[in-house]
Design a protein that fits this description.
By secondary structure, the protein is α/β, with parallel strands linked by helices. Helix content is about 40%, strand content about 10%. The chain is globular and about 45 Å long.
Length: about 140
């Protein structure tokens, strides 16, 4: 697959699901650069699945992200299998994750793949990366 076609498809699908939020005036967001465990109820099961999917696997392309990345295994499964699996792609997406929890997951697993990826995509998504305290999306402008 041509790299420019791959990039265009990935960016198009990612941007199509993005939205812009503004912070409430009385609320400061959590710092995104401090690793922190995501404590939402569905995360432990998904984290176990992505951890098992990652550990000891040959990895050509690593996708790290939130629900946009995770959904490649469901809504985008046909494309994922046809386009990405032949390139030894690994999906490390967890719905609801923000930058801080993605950093925590990467530190916790030490990204223990058998082979280092040639390419890594980090896509936290605009909705979740712009969320305020407690993972609640900020109000729209």
């Amino acid at each position: 697959m041509n790299a420019s076609v791959f990039s265009a498809v990935f960016l198009l699908l990612s941007f199509a699901s993005s939205a812009v939020y503004a912070a409430p005036a009385d609320e400061a967001p959590d710092p995104p650069d401090v690793p922190k465990l995501n404590t939402q109820p569905w995360v432990p099961a998904r984290y176990r699945a992505v951890r098992e999917n990652l550990l000891g696997k040959e990895c050509g392309i690593l996708f790290v992200g939130d629900s946009i990345t995770e959904c490649w295994e469901r809504e985008g499964a046909a494309l994922w299998k046809r386009l990405f699996l032949p390139m030894k792609a690994v999906n490390f997406g967890v719905s609801g994750d923000r930058t801080d929890s993605m950093l925590w997951r990467m530190e916790d697993t030490k990204l223990a793949v058998k082979t280092s990826p040639a390419i890594a995509f980090y896509w936290p998504g605009r909705i979740i990366s712009a969320a305020g305290r407690g993972g609640k999306p900020r109000r729209r402008r």
